[in-house]
Write a structure and sequence with these properties.
By secondary structure, the protein is mainly α. It has three helices and no strands.
């Protein structure tokens, strides 16, 4: 009986550890809505990241931009 219990326990602990639900309180929403929390708040950094992404993406480009992996778009 112990042999069957251990894999079930490991599975249960693994599932519990990978859950990502978080309840946001009303007073915390202001912090999350702050512009500093946006990933695209820096236009120069966003442009550089997109250039690196679509230069390395060989198949179809990045963000709707066509081209190859040579970086000469």
């Amino acid at each position: 009986m112990k042999v069957k219990f251990i894999p079930v326990l490991v599975l249960a602990v693994g599932l519990a550890a990978t859950t990502g639900c978080q309840h946001v309180r009303p007073w915390q929403r202001g912090t999350l809505a702050d512009p500093i929390m946006r990933a695209d708040r820096d236009p120069l950094g966003t442009g550089e990241s997109e250039h690196i992404y679509f230069s390395r993406e060989d198949a179809n480009g990045g963000r709707g931009v066509g081209g190859g992996g040579c970086g000469c778009n």
